[in-house]
Amino acid sequence: MARLLALALLGLLVINPASAQSMLQKLTPQLIGNALGAAGIAYTTGKDGVGDPMLTITGGTAAKGMRAVFFSCAADACEDVTLWAYVSPTGGARMDRINTWNRDARWTRAYIDKDGDAVLELDINATGGIGDTAVGVLVRTFIDQVAKFARHIDGGI
After folding, report:
1. 70: domain range?
2. What residues contact 125, with CB distance under 8 A and at least 6 apart?
3. Which of 6, 29, 39, 114 has its C-alpha lying 20 to 30 A from 133's C-alpha?
4. Taken in order 154, 90, 107, 130, is the CA torsion positive or negative?
5. CA Rg value for the chain
6. Model pTM score
């Protein structure tokens, strides 16, 4: 009987490997910072205008500015984080390039801000749980997308 129970539990792990990793209910600056650091990205930790955590990326990307802005926070643990970056393309941002990006790219959204800069965003939400591995993958995806976005907006890919 014990052997049958052990096999059944092993089967659940094989069917649902996510249960073997840590499921997070909140996102922290340390978690996002660790993912940035693992990708070789430098950052500083601070607070936004309402006192929620914010990471300001200080180098290692194609963006002119990049941040991780946290939302729905209690103590420094938050439900959401938006990864945000902007680029200032030669000749200004063009709506047709933004539209092409939004049509063809996955995971991120782009728009032109009030200053005429091209902005790229990716939201991460922990409501209901998210694997710590998935958070790292999303952060790395965003960093890769920023480089592609910068080239695309400047008339490249």
Report:
1. 23-153
2. 79, 80
3. 6
4. positive
5. 19
6. 0.82
